[in-house]
Amino acid sequence: MLHIVNKSPLGHAALDSCLRVAQGGDLLLIEDAVYAASAGTLFEPLMKDALKRFKVYALQPDLEARGVAAHLIEGIAVVDYGGFVDLVTQNKTCQSWL
Amino acid sequence: MKFGIVVNEGPYQHQASDSAYLFCKAVLEKGHEIFRVFFYHDGVNNASRLTEPPQDDRNIVARWSKLAEDHGVDLVVCVAAALRRGIKEENLAPGFRISGLGQLVEAGIQADRLVTFGD
Amino acid sequence: MSEESSIKKFMFVNRKPPHGTIYALESLEVVLITAAFDQDVSLVFLDDGVFQLRKGQQTKGIETKNFSPTYRALDGYDIEKLYVEKESLDARGLTEDDLLVDVMVLDRKALGALMDEQDVVLSF
Lengths: 98, 119, 124
What we know:
The complex is a heterotrimer.
Chain A: E1 2-5, H1 14-21, E2 25-29, H2 44-50, E3 54-59, H3 60-65, E4 77-79, H4 81-90, E5 94-96
Parallel strand pairs in A: 1-2, 1-5, 2-3, 3-4
Chain B: E1 2-7, H1 16-29, E2 33-39, H2 60-71, E3 75-78, H3 79-84, E4 96-99, H4 102-110, E5 113-117
Parallel strand pairs in B: 1-2, 1-5, 2-3, 3-4
Helix pairs in contact in B: 1-2
Chain C: E1 9-14, H1 23-35, E2 40-45, H2 70-73, E3 81-85, H3 86-91, E4 104-106, H4 108-116, E5 120-123
Parallel strand pairs in C: 1-2, 1-5, 2-3, 3-4
């Protein structure tokens, strides 16, 4: 299953909830959730822990828009919108953690 | 593959409409089909033809209308959510149609994938 | 298409509290419509979404519609699969007795596994 999160984990619980409930699969960070892909934040240890269970992706245009495309946590893959579409097709279902 | 898309937030206020639009374009570029885009909650405001963004900004509503015109994408606005927010036939942008929530359920049934963009 | 193959597993995930925003009410409207399509419907209440089911909601003072009794009517629409995450209840000092309707309480892992079984997941 593809889990899509769109909120910064530093201000919202959506990513925490996703990581608590979902047991694994693909995780795509879009919109404000791309801050979770940045190295050096308070959330980094939790993200590194999540990488043991999830394949984690971050949306490139959202990273670039926010000036955080450099210094990503190691192991997080970057995709464009085409890659986003591919992730949806590769997974039987997807869930947006709104 | 057939995609259903749900847009739950209004234009400009939230990035959801932009993300949904860019996702739709990528779906079509990949050769997939969009069964329907369903606008719910404040997402119904994407359908207002009274929208007038500044000249140097993207026109989110017109962009949806063009997607419908160029690719025949079915843009459906939830009637109950629309009436609550003053979206009616008389201010509906080209390419959109107003219909019931059943259209969302049908998209869930008919499409191979349903992707939601919201807050 | 046979009748069997046209039935999909729909899951509605409610993570937001009622009243502060319209999401809970409009989610319920989708759920009621979905019931008419004879699909396999599950509702999940997670995080602040569990407050949607809290007993004793009185909206007179905020002059909004109190839609909380509608959760009790879901049974009449053959919507019987209501799931609540145990960790969300615990975090809010709630037990099943605080809720308006009978629910199935699942721990986070069981709930995660249930999500993986779905065909369509709609979040509000």
